[in-house]
């Protein structure tokens, strides 16, 4: 999505907070200089709640039954600087594991490749003899069909050994800096934020309808009624309008990204906020 914004293939995106921040204050971008255009700015907040990540390994991994068994292990990540990578440092911090290298990241790619990485079952493999990672983390309800035993799937490929939440609101809104060079005063963004606010109000006014839609595929997923209801318990949309990002959120994300060696340690909070925020909101 970052690439699409930078190439003006899209002008607005809603994505994980840590991804937006990493793209603007990560080492690759910082090396371009203090005034280099990152291609986008964060202009709004979508939810107030964190994202719930499942911590999973292969079902046949008899030596891994709890989070304690993961210390010093290999964590599968989609790419360096991704949410799946960054959350490994959040996990290490929560567990009081030594920083900076409590876990070894193994770059595996998208969700399917991450599953294969912990089970050892690639396209040409039939057993679990060659797993390349000990565990990975992914959004709870996307992952659940692969670890939750049901009559139809009594032995799913994964087992869940824990869960973890992002220590910040999980979704923010970014806008192309070439399309919206002055986001604070752009009437198009103001109109968009007002429409999003109205959409949130409509969503919250009829959650029963939302639960039904989540099971049809119309909203991009096919949750069971049970999962959709549970998901709604985890989600609270932003109050007081979607416009802007809070300074403390940027600072919190940057702190973790420095531990992950994604952001240079010399980047101060003021510079990070300047690089990331297109519109700041009140604390």
Automatic annotation (TrEMBL):
Source taxon at top rank: Eukaryota
Localization per record: Periplasm
GO cellular component, one term: periplasmic space
Residue ranges occupied by any Ca3427-like PBP domain in the UniProt entry: 53-164
Keywords: Signal
Major subcellular location class: periplasm
PANTHER family linked to this entry: ALIPHATIC SULFONATES-BINDING PROTEIN-RELATED (PTHR30024), TAURINE-BINDING PERIPLASMIC PROTEIN (PTHR30024:SF47)
Membership in a protein family: Belongs to the bacterial solute-binding protein SsuA/TauA family.
Stated name of the protein: Ca3427-like PBP 2 domain-containing protein
Organism name: Coccidioides immitis H538.4
